TrEMBL record:
This is VWA1 protein. One of its GO terms (cellular component) is extracellular region. Residues 1-90, 92-180 form the Fibronectin type-III domain. It comes from Vireo altiloquus (Black-whiskered vireo). SMART domains: FN3.
C-alpha cells in the first residue's frame, strides 16, 4: 500500500496512495519530473482528503520520478517515491477511409484522433506519377475533402500524423475518381 501508478497511457497516469492525512491534518506536496531531466520538476499541492490524482500532459515513452510528500501538522511521514514510465505513442492513423468519390473530388477521413497529434498532412497524387499535393489539416479534425482532381483516375492518398514530439506516422490508401459526366 505505497504510492503507485495505474491507468498509464502515453500522456498520463493516475497516482494512488494510502490514506495518511485528512482534510484537517495537512496536505500533500506532489513533485514529478522526467528522470532524465529533473530540472523540469513540476510541483502540485493536493488536499489531505485525496488518495489519488491524475497527472496528464506528460511526454510519451518517458520515465518520471514521482515524490509524494505528506505535509502533516500532527505526525512526520516520510516522502513516498515511485518511478512511472509512460507508454509509447499510440500509432495513428490506423485506418484511412475514402468516401463520397466524385469525378473531381473525394472525401478522406482517418482514425483515431489523438491529443498527441498536432496536425495531419494529407498527400495525394495520381498513379502512376510523381506530382504530389499536400493539404494541412488541424490535429483536432479527422477528415478533409480533396478537390480539383482528374476524373477516372486512381490517386494514392497518404495521411501523416505529426505528433507534438516531432515524430511522424503515415498510412496510405488508394482512391479512384468517378468518370466525368458524359454528354449524350
Amino acid at each position: 500500500n505505497r504510492l503507485h501508478a495505474t491507468d498509464v497511457t502515453s500522456s498520463s497516469f493516475r497516482l494512488m496512495w494510502p490514506k495518511l492525512l485528512s482534510q484537517e491534518t495537512g496536505y500533500y506536496t506532489l513533485e514529478y519530473a522526467p528522470a532524465a531531466d529533473l530540472a523540469r520538476k513540476r510541483t502540485q499541492q493536493v488536499s489531505g482528503a485525496h488518495t489519488s490524482l491524475l497527472l496528464s500532459d506528460l511526454a510519451p515513452e518517458t520515465t518520471y520520478e514521482v515524490a509524494l510528500i505528506p505535509e502533516s501538522n500532527v505526525h512526520y511521514f516520510p516522502p513516498q517515491t515511485t518511478r512511472v514510465t509512460t507508454l509509447a505513442e499510440e500509432i495513428s492513423p490506423v485506418q484511412v477511409l475514402i468516401s463520397e468519390s466524385g469525378p473531381r473530388s473525394f472525401h478522406v477521413s482517418w482514425a483515431p484522433v489523438l491529443d498527441s497529434v498536432i496536425s495531419y498532412q494529407v498527400l495525394y497524387g495520381p498513379l502512376p506519377g510523381n506530382s504530389v499535393k499536400v493539404l494541412e489539416v488541424d490535429g483536432k479534425h479527422n477528415s478533409t475533402v480533396v478537390e480539383h482532381l482528374a476524373p477516372n483516375t486512381t490517386y494514392l492518398v497518404t495521411v501523416t500524423a505529426i505528433y507534438r514530439s516531432g515524430k511522424e506516422k503515415s498510412l496510405s490508401a488508394k482512391a479512384c475518381t468517378q468518370e466525368g459526366e458524359r454528354l449524350l
